[in-house]
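Reviewer 2 asked us to include a model.

Predict the structure of this chain.
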Amino acid sequence: MKKYFAWLAVAFFALSLSGCGYNDFQAKDEATKAAWGEVVNQYQRRSDLIPNLVNTVKGYASHEKDTLEAVIKARAAATSFQITPEVLNNPQALAKFQQVQGDLSSALSRLMVVSENYPQLKADTSFRDLQSQLEGTENRITVARQRYIASVQEYNILARSFPTNITAKIFSYEVKPSFTVENEKAISTAPAVNFGK
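Predicted model (structure tokens):
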């Protein structure tokens, strides 16, 4: 009878370990890190394209110095931000990362508006190629962010669901912050469209 209870205890212990979710946490954590790596990769690609784009615009729009300097300054801030694995678990650091990337996006938008004023620049093949690459990179950033958000969602569901939330508490698997929109209130309001004067 003691052997029977010993085997039953071993079987129960094995089943409880398989249901604790430890391995799932490892897999989801690695998936989150890989998704984050792709986000960073695409932001780096964008930063690498910017100097070429700025130099091309400089040749045509030398008196748009403020806009060009804003792009250069935003790029410097974005590339100087240290991206470490701790960023994934720190909401303040993730918010700071999002802010510097948002500033860079804003500066690039102003640069594209400036380019509209220069027909020769818009006709320049290298500018068009760089602009196309930058647009493609922005799309890749969006896709990478979506994948990261989905990966964090899966991880957070695992961390908050029973019984794996017990494993999360034991091994300190905290809920991870996700990307957020800085101006959520502003973008929730529909823009006013007025075709009149």
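The chain has a mean pLDDT of 78. The helical segments are 2-18, 22-60, 65-80, 91-115, 119-123, 125-160, 164-170, 184-187. We have added this to the supplementary material.
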